[in-house]
Every structure is written in structure tokens, then in C-alpha cells.
Amino acid sequence: MFYRPEDGHGLPHNPFNALIVPRPIGWISSRGADGVDNLAPYSFFNGCAYTPPQVMFASTGAKEDRNGTKDSLANIRETGVFCVNLVAQAMTDEMNASSQTLPAGTSEFDHAGLERAECETIACSRVKHAPASLECRMSQIVELEGAANAVCFGTVTGIHMRDDYLVEGMFDITRFTPLARLGYRDYTVVKETFTLARPDD
């Protein structure tokens, strides 16, 4: 099968997201200028540089009460900082609850019943019991083609890792089975890994 996106795919559901899998979930916490903490999952998320460490996430779509964007991006534009929290399988329900569209000024931490902790290097909350959290200073926001599409880049200024997931000096993701996004309404978890040496190692 071949199709041009502008012509449509003719399938019951859009296959685009199902082709880019699995995608890590960036559980983005931010704080507005009004002091309200926001939390939302983004599956267009990844690391993008080592030195200095940098991450990115893409925001698509908009809320009626946020002038053409979503709460996370609006908050980051106001304050210049955000935090990326990893999602363990055990936090699936809380992650899903935080994805609900709520009025601006409502904290998803409270809505999802999540305990928060203050970040060390930025004025922002993080998910207290997340496996790891990356404190970030926004470096740039790039507007993309299409309505309400933007990519936010951030430089990592602080990293939290839970001690119970450190094994012999390495962060062991199989201890918490990270949640990942697939296409449609589907998710998966990472339960096993394997090591592969590069040809030039």
C-alpha cells in the first residue's frame, strides 16, 4: 500500500502513529506564571544531544482557553523551564488521567492524585516517585508547519534517578518497565533488553 497524506489513507484509522513505534513518553511537568503546576504526557519526545544534554518534545493541537496552544507550552513560554518525568508501568492510570483536557489553572497533579516534589535547579514541580526526572531550561521553541504544531527544546540542568533502580552503577529500566506509546490507543512496556556491540567498538 502507498498513499499520499494529503490524499488520505482510506483506512478506518490513521496509521501514521503506528509506524513510529515504540515512542518514549515524556511526562512533562511545568508551572505557569500563576504558580499552578501542570502535568501532561507527550509521546513525540526524545533526547537530542549529549553535550550539553538536551531533550525535545512536540506539542500538537490546542485548547480553547490557551490561545492556540496547550497548557504545557503556554507555561514554558511564560517561565522558560520544564521537567520531563519517566513513566513506569505502575503509573499507567495516573499518566492517562493526566492526559485529560482540563480547564487552564487546574493541576493534573491533583486530578491524578500524584505526589509532587520541588525541582532542584528550576522553579517547577516533578513527579515525586517517577523513576527519573530531567530538569530542563527551555532553549528554543520551533513552530512547525500546520496549525498548533511546535517543538520545544530544553537543556537538562538536573537529573533525578531513583536509587532503587540503580544496579551496579547502571540505571536498570527493567526494574520499573517503562511505558511506551504505540499507534492508535495502544501502549507497550519494556521488560527485557539485550546488548549489541557496535562494529567500531
UniProtKB/TrEMBL annotation:
It comes from the Bacteria. GO terms for molecular function: FMN binding; oxidoreductase activity, acting on the CH-NH group of donors, NAD or NADP as acceptor. Gene3D superfamilies: Electron Transport, Fmn-binding Protein, Chain A. Residues 18-173 form the Flavin reductase like domain. This is Flavin reductase family protein. It comes from Aquicoccus porphyridii.
